[in-house]
Write the structure tokens for this entry.
Amino acid sequence: MQIKGYEIALPESRLDSIFENQIQVFDMIGEDFAGYRELAEGDQKALRCLVRAAKMINDVALEQDHPLNLTLKAGLEEAAATCSHAAKALRLFNSLNGVAGLNGIDPEPVEIFKNVHGYQGRNFYPTDLSAEEFHQILTQMLENNKIEEVRKILSARTMVRRFGSELKAVDYTEYFAPVFSKVANELELAAHYSTDAAFNDYLGWQAQALLQNNEDMDQLADKHWAVLQDSPLEFTLSRENYDDEMTPTVCDNPRLSAMLAEAGIEVTPKDMLGARVGIVNKKGTDLLLTFKEQMKNLAKLMPFADRYRQNIASGSELKQTMVDVDLATLQGDYAQCRGAITTAQNLPNNDKLSIKLGGGRRNVYHRQVRQNVDPERTRKMLDALVSPELHRYYNPEAEHIFVIGHENGHSLGPDSSYQNALGIYNHVIEENKADVISITFMPEYVKACIISEQTLKEVYVTWIVRLLLKAKPQLIQPHRVGDLIHFNFLLENGAICFNSEQKLEINFAKMDEVMHKLLRETIDVQLSKSPQRAKEFIDRWSDWGKLAESIAATLRKLGIKPYKEIRTYL
């Protein structure tokens, strides 16, 4: 069947198999949710405005991701009314939030239409632009003293198009002006209804940031968002740059990198936009705050702490807020469920101006994501791969404790100047760092009486079990590559092993020593500012051996649901 001149690549029977056996559904909250009913009437109205704004941001992310996304989605929606094949293809499109994407299992991306592929530079760059030509054009432009235009091209907030033999950057606020104007209207309307003054203030700044080509407005919006601790509602306009694989390639070009450094140009991958809306859960938030005050103590324990400025505030004030949120919707970048779905987030990232100017961060945790657990499948997995004496320590809630440590870990360690210098390896090293900080410093939470020795073992076991991967990860999957690094490091250093029955055993006595060793090696890589060092570290510890493949084969036999579906009801 053809949609807008493009043939659906997956037969209807394959789509049926995906939806019968391979998809995991995440239900967002609706009007029947107790927390929604408890909101003031004005906050209920504001929440609906924010959901509408988030859905508009989704269209922006679709265009950033692929030039055909909006056209082919509209075609599928039109055909779905009368054709079951189109309706099922649309459902998969909405799961991937695009025409193509990895599913976390297969080595090649899933492509919904024949001859419609993803691109290295997504739609941030011309789709016919190769990395080699990209470098040549930038070099020529620098030689012609077009420094400011190159600076814009390598900015996180621009769409880049051909301009004769050169490239030209268009700021997001100009490129997406019509939809940004509509989003701003919804945010201002939400601020009219909302009962929380600080939240309304943030919405006003965020609306203005969408209307002005001015990075200062973004940083002001970020600063007002990052201090929200007691507001009943949650709205995030996320800007993360994991998806752009074109911009970081310049760091692998020594001559071009030197020219950019001489011109004072920072290389920052493009931001993919996302939008999150929800209701803050007070009980869950109270738990998060018990971990907060330990962060200043942990900063002092970081390796080589005297060689860099800590990400968190060094004075008496800790610029970090934390909230647990019941989700009304995830849109845009959040909804690109390509083998995974976000459980929590620490923003703004280090490349953002608000952080560089001393602003704070905010951690947001996704209740509807982490609470989606299949107990029966978990039991089968433990029986197949984990020694029986460890089963009692496996606890999904312990993973939440680990994630809290992970998100806090992003606020520790070297700043963005070190991270961005690692080029295409930046995100793998940074996500690896956050994981390692979480596990390395988990005993400090025991000392502070925040968790018990029993919970510590539960965190260890639950985290190590998640390192048992279902497929070999790719570099574009930084969290999963990090998992493989941890698995191999623990195995080689004797913290874990597999017995004669090929079941996991853990040497709890070695965990502290081994994790501190891994943390030192990780921070040393970041401090090197060397993409080559980062590549060597990743290559050294991300080997996909026979044991990893055997574990993956076992997990696949148990059944895997690599596709994710977000259902929004408001």
Q: What stands out?
A: The chain has 26 helices and 15 strands. The mean pLDDT is 95. The chain has three domains: 1-25+67-118, 31-52+124-372, 374-556.
